[in-house]
């Protein structure tokens, strides 16, 4: 896999010292990520302090979602490193930009499912669910997600991210499509979590003025971090009154710096170096099986099957129907099948087995084995046709007048 660095930056990357983790919840250094030939993250450096709200601002397509996906381990960097204060998945609550929930489950069932994944007890799930329902103004527990509005679904997604009380909360566009009053209540909740409980929050948003409530702001554009400071420091350094003006000014400075380094001659094609090993994932996930995840999957399937009765009946009765049809078609003896017989064994004077009877063992009674076999075939409802020579028997089989032909040779006993 190719890294997004040319040869000179690659050498600088190797000389970079290991980043310490004193009071920073997340540290990203020299992050590179590409899709095909398109660079998404380019030498990105980011530091998020513990116990603060970090607002990540930037236009669509600048790499915000990709960066968050790399932090939580959904994607891997092509080069660079990510250090987290927490090392386990349970330390992070992640709300993705898209709605990644089961629409058929109710709100209570959704809380139960994700609570079991994080090994929470039923009492803790019930208590946390009620608290989040009040804080986020969620609708009735019994409603399924496809019965509520899109804004309510996003609030349920936020509640799921907060259900297990994580140390680091990562929210990708949590206030999109929400009522302004609800958005403000969410921000008040986030501020309370950081100031009173020491949680760390990373939030991406398109609403620049809304991000003024963050303690730190990072401005992204075209895969790079243009600035990282508090809202007050940004406004002071740019001599602006609004964050929109500051963001515009910083972007204009980036464009001006880029244009000033342009050389009006044809440049050779850049050569990219290959990363020897992929950077290690920031989170530990070495457990292949846990009882909590198994229990969550079983409960989810029970919820879904109970809600879809026709599908449940189909799943139950389909194997039974298949078994019955198979036994009807293939599970019994054939009847009224025509068989050709060529018997060279010496039988009675009449030349047939029909008049021969035995009351003792057939070995003592002198009854030919062929006669015993033919009697058993007649009991099985086979229709026997005798032929005088093998050619007639083979001809009957080839013309589908007989299913098969048998020949009993002399001295079979």
TrEMBL record:
Q: Does the keyword DNA repair apply?
A: no
Any idea which UniProt keywords this protein has?
A: ATP-binding, Membrane, Nucleotide-binding, Transmembrane, Transmembrane helix
The transmembrane segments are 309-329
What's a single GO MF annotation on this record? ATP binding
Database matches in InterPro entries = AAA+_ATPase, ABC_transporter-like_ATP-bd, ABC_transporter-like_CS, P-loop_NTPase
SMART domains xref list = AAA
Q: Where's the ABC transporter domain?
A: 26-247
Return the PROSITE patterns for the record. ABC_TRANSPORTER_1, ABC_TRANSPORTER_2
Coiled coil (residue ranges): none
Family annotation (PANTHER family): ABC TRANSPORTER G FAMILY MEMBER 20 ISOFORM X1 (PTHR43038:SF3), ATP-BINDING CASSETTE, SUB-FAMILY H, MEMBER 1 (PTHR43038)
Q: What protein does this entry describe?
A: ABC transporter domain-containing protein
Source organism? Macrosiphum euphorbiae
- Organism taxonomic ancestry: Eukaryota, Metazoa, Ecdysozoa, Arthropoda, Hexapoda
